[in-house]
Amino acid sequence: MHCRVVVEAAVPVFDVETEDEAIRIAISKTGEMLNPDLNYVEINMGERTSPSGEELPPAFIAADEALVALELEMTVFNVEREEHASRIARKEIGQLLENIPLEVISIEEFEDEDDAEDDESADDDDAETADRDDESEPDESAGSETETEAADDDDEILPEFEDLVE
Question: Contact, 23 vs 45, CB < 8 A?
Answer without folding.
Answer: yes
